[in-house]
Amino acid sequence: MTEYCIALDIGTSGLRSQLLDAETGKTIATSITARHPIPGMNVIDHVNYAMTAGRDVANGLIITAVNSLFSSFGADLSKVKVVAVCGNPFQLSLFQNIEIRDLAYAGKNMLESLGVVSPPRDGDILKASELGIKGMPDAVVMIPPAVTHEIGADAIAMLLITDVLDSKEPCIVVDYGTNAEMALVLNGNVYTGSAAAGPALEGQQIEKGMLASPGAIADVDIKSNGWECTVLDNSMKDAPGDVVDPMTGKVVAKGPMHSKAKGITGTGVVASIYCGIEAGVITPPAISSPDGAIHLQDGVNIFSKDIDEAGKAIGALRAGFLTLLIEAGIWTDDVKIAYMSGASGLYVDAKKALRIGMVLPGAEKIIQFGNTSIELARRLALGKVSLDDLREFAKRLRATHCMFATAKAFKDIYSIEYSLWSQGMPASEYNNMMDVYDLPHIPEPLKEPEVIRMAVTDLPETEGLKVKILENAGTVLSGEVEGCTECQSCVEECPENALTIVSEGGKIFGKIQSDRCAGTACRRCERICPVDVLRITPFKQAQSS
């Protein structure tokens, strides 16, 4: 009888899962959510939501999404024996429904005044049924340890899978995502940090943005007669799109993916920004076309506000890189190797990413990995690595964690990045601003670094298998809205089409598809309410409609 195990990665932008044959290790099915089930676009939004709406509500949303994912495999879940989970400390804590306030608040005095005691987070084995996971009564869930309450299993995965600790040269590794974990390895010491970059580099909060799926523009290149788009086909592979005039959108030459573009991924946004800066038509955030937009194929355009959103993310990344260097007492000419992990880190054109600031300035060799988090979950689920192995790894790991939120260098450098990307500061003024803060200059990035790509896709062993994407994981929040006039202003204002207002049994209810909601950082629906009666944080989880 075939027995199964499951690898699960709880990322800030969504959940990824793979069903594996426990004996052979072969991947049987892969399912991912289109978005994260907790309202919000990054880990800070998720923290705020969980703190205001309640930990139980946030936990319920994650578990519901997990159950939807596992159900989508179409397999007999009673044959699952092991589920291995990886993610950052906050996501894993919500998955387990344990204390999160020690992650949300900085400072021992604050935690002591609240009576908060950090849970161990040294790895655990729990019954799946006790966590609320359905259909697998005999399964256990394995949760890897953290190094500290701030440096989690995802950081261990990033360091372990990429083998950066064995590097004889200084190097930096970054897991690119809405919450970008990064580590600088220097003489056996590890300096870690985490930058809340936001979702723009994954195609979210972009006007025509979308996650990677068929019809997404994933790359853009400058050609002699225009800009050529690369579009993901039905098998999620790069395929040539149209060559267009970026100033007008006029099709210069039709490609095989003509008329098939639906939107643009984060990698496509990065490529568009690179091409625009290279061609001299983008001076962030302004675009010098007749209508202030970059025109790609099939009406997919890049706007100034998109550059602003992406620029804030790129700025947070570069500020994080440079802050770690300052923490370690070195600078850009000392670190020649940069590792890029995660989906964004794998699929993006590394040379373009380096040129616009997504990779450490001074990098001469760039090594692109896939999803290290789910790879660690796979190894744990298949018994290729044990919890004891990971605990020993965590103990041996000498790490200094830098809190970017309180680091002066990060604040100073990010203010320069903000001026560059959002306030129209010329790039030529960057190092002059570094002088103002008594910081060293950054070099001009190489145009032709060595690039090594270690994986074909960010999800292992999906060749020949369709990746199922759950557009709706069944996570719905509902609450009565007393005094609502049913004017629908809030519904029309919601930028993500997440909200509906319905009348049931003489009462008015708001219903939110939680994975579409931008959360506490948005609240546009609340602000537009003409009678000021809508409050979404008291909403509780409801059954999917």
Question: What do you see in this structure?
Answer:
The strands form six sheets. This protein has a seven-stranded mixed sheet, sandwiched between helices. The longest helix is centred in the middle third of the chain and has 25 residues, at 304-328. Among the domains are: 4-150, Domain of unknown function (DUF4445) (Nucleotidyltransferase, domain 5, 2-Layer Sandwich); 476-542, Alpha-Beta Plaits (2-Layer Sandwich). It has 16 helices and 27 strands. With 545 residues, the protein is α/β, with parallel strands linked by helices. It starts with a strand and ends with a strand. The radius of gyration is 23 Å and the shape is globular. 30% of the residues lie in helices and 25% in strands.
* Biggest sheet layout: 7 strands, mixed
Fourth-tier CATH superfamily name of the domain at 4-150:
Domain of unknown function (DUF4445)
Count the E strands: 27
Uncertain regions spanning at least 5 consecutive residues:
none
User: What fraction of residues sit in β-strands?
Assistant: 15-25%
Global morphology: globular
- CATH topology term of the domain at 4-150: Nucleotidyltransferase, domain 5
Radius of gyration: 23 Å
Helix content: 25-40%
Q: Ends: how far apart?
A: 36 Å
Which structural class do the helices and strands define? alpha/beta
Helix count equals 16
Strand order of the largest sheet: 5-6-4-1-2-3-23
CATH class of the domain at 4-150: Alpha Beta
| Average predicted local confidence, pLDDT | 92
What is the CATH-assigned architecture of the domain at 4-150?
A: 2-Layer Sandwich
